[in-house]
Amino acid sequence: MRMKLLDVHCHLDEFFYKEDIDEVIDRCRQNNVSAVAAGVNPGTNRNVLMLKKKYPDVVHASLGIYPPDALKKETEGSENKLNLDYDIDREIEFIEKNKDNIVAVGEVGMDFKDGTDFEMQEKTFRKMIELAMRIKKPIIIHSRKAESKVIDILEEYNYSKVIMHCFGGKHSQVRRIRENNWYFSIPTSIVRDEHFQKIVKETQLRQLLLETDSPFLSPFKDRKNEPSFITETVKKISELKRLPEIDVSTMINRNCEILFFDA
Predict the structure, then answer these.
(1) Which residues of the chain have pLDDT under 50?
(2) pLDDT over 70 for what percent of the chain?
(3) Residue 207, class by beta-carbon neighbours within 10 Å (0-12 exposed, 13-18 middle, 19+ buried)?
(4) How far apart, in whole angstroms, are the C-alpha atoms of residue 28 and residue 7?
(5) Residues 173-226: pLDDT tens digits?
(6) Strand-by-strand arrangement of the 139-142 sheet
(7) Is the C-alpha dihedral spanning 95, 96, 98, 101 positive or negative?
(8) How far is the C-alpha of 240 from the C-alpha of 109, rounded, in Å?
(9) What are the structural domains, with CATH classification, of the chain?
(10) Contact status, residue 48 vs residue 20, Cβ threshold 8 Å
(11) What is the Cα gyration radius of the chain?
(12) Taking the model in full, what pTM does it have?
């Protein structure tokens, strides 16, 4: 049997993922994969908790607050509607009350591509860092076009359980992340993305994790992404590191145990 793998960041709730979730979960079981499903606002946070309750053998929960102004722009015109008018402090209280039901805080961070209210983003981001530290959970970071600012803020807090999700920053910023002993979660798009290939080549396995960001960033051009495709990331890392897949899986699983499950 293949070693069980963990997709540390994906979106499986009904707003983002409209496929038959039962089939997606079955393919996870067939491929010995579990997944950390991420919330981004009150509605998706509650959906994630429902998924965890329904599929406890596959789904782990991560609750977060994505930069609201950026999320509003990203979801404009969607057939579904996310509630983007809510009390952030109240949602933070909700997340803290559910600390025993989650393995991480996220997806949180800053977004200078789609956002406009950067003061609000920073204020919210700092609150989320402080929450993660208070409840002693890893924090999963979104930093699109805001990489330098996000790293600066994180360095102020000196928190070790930091996961840089799908990090697209410059090589100098990648180096800062390594020096801070934070983690990179490598998406399945690594199969064709030279930026992530370079990160993997230059980063020790002890700082690498696996993610799909489902339903986005599929390794296959004609298929929507899903957690079971995380095996493609392992294959590519194995190729780049010139190591057997079992060695790659073993080390990355150890990282997950340390971060999420207090091994």
Answers:
(1) 1, 263
(2) 96
(3) middle
(4) 10
(5) 999 999 999 999 999 999 999 999 999 999 999 999 999 999 999 999 889 999
(6) 5-10, 33-38, 59-63, 104-109, 139-142, 162-165, 183-186, 208-210
(7) positive
(8) 29
(9) 5-260 (3.20.20.140)
(10) no
(11) 17
(12) 0.95
Token reading at 2: 């293949």
Q: Which two tokens stand for residue 220?
A: 């296959």
Check: CB of residue 59 under 8 Å from CB of residue 35.
Answer: yes
DSSP collapsed to 3 states, the chain: CCCCEEEEEECCCCCCCCCCHHHHHHHHHHCCEEEEEECCCHHHHHHHHHHHHHCCCCEEEEECCCCHHHHHHHCCCCCCCCCCCCCHHHHHHHHHHCHHHCCEEEEEECCCCCCCCHHHHHHHHHHHHHHHHHHCCCEEEECCCCHHHHHHHHHHHCCCCEEEECCCCCHHHHHHHHHCCCEEEECHHHHCCHHHHHHHHHCCHHHEEECCCCCCCCCCCCCCCCHHHHHHHHHHHHHHHCCCHHHHHHHHHHHHHHHHCCC
Tokens of 50: 């429902």
